[in-house]
Structure to design on (222 residues):
């Protein structure tokens, strides 16, 4: 039982490049989330998916897109990376009631 | 607008003593509160939670207290151990099922 798996763990991008962060969970959770964590800002919600086939914007969605490919997978795409998107990104899932299970994070640097 | 606040970015405690981490919230609709612990280079992991119908929940060395009238919750760790050194996030959720995280408190337990 792997929980929530994120790939890659580290990435360096040049400004303007695109990339997709992958996330998969094996706990049959309905809801999945993408957060970013910046110093002094806590965890901020980028996008979430309450169920397969639905996605909604969170607190800081600009510059990102998401895809809920199936119940297991929820990907986050940066179409044109900017230095302001340098952050640590966490994917999480949770059942209908209860707390989150987080992935181990992706440390992204945009230069 | 930060609905969940952790006003102490850091805390240092001697091993064996009590650690008290505080969290304040502004939304009276929040009905479920959680604490997460995060080690460097890892995702946050669930620690303990409390429903708004209770004012205390205990799990081993960890106790969470909720004061609804003051919109305040706290996490007590007794006795503190060096392995408790981590960043602690409090989180709150409302019936709409949206989670809000505090900015975190970095706890250092000094041997």
């Amino acid at each position: 039982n792997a929980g929530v798996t994120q790939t890659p763990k580290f990435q360096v991008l040049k400004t303007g490049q695109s990339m997709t962060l992958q996330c998969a969970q094996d706990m049959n959770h309905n809801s999945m989330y993408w957060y970013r964590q910046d110093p002094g800002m806590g965890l901020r919600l980028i996008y979430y998916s309450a169920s397969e086939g639905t996605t909604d914007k969170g607190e800081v969605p600009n510059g990102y897109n998401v895809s809920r490919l199936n119940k297991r997978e929820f990907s986050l795409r940066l179409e044109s990376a900017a230095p302001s998107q340098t952050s640590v990104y966490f994917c999480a899932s949770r059942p209908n009631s209860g707390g989150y299970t987080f992935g181990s994070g992706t440390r992204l640097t945009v230069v | 607008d930060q609905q969940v606040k952790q006003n102490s970015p850091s805390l240092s405690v001697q091993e064996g003593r009590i650690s008290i981490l505080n969290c304040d919230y502004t939304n009276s609709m929040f009905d479920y509160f959680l604490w997460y612990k995060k080690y460097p280079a890892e995702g946050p992991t669930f620690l303990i939670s409390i429903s708004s119908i209770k004012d205390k929940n205990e799990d081993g060395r960890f106790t969470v207290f909720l004061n609804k009238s003051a919109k305040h919750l706290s996490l007590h760790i007794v006795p503190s151990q060096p392995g408790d050194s981590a960043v602690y996030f409090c989180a709150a959720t409302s019936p709409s099922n949206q989670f809000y995280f505090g900015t975190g408190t970095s706890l250092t337990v000094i041997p």
Q: What stands out?
A: The first strand of chain A starts at residue 4 and ends at 7. DSSP finds no helices and eleven strands in chain A. The mean pLDDT of chain A is 92.
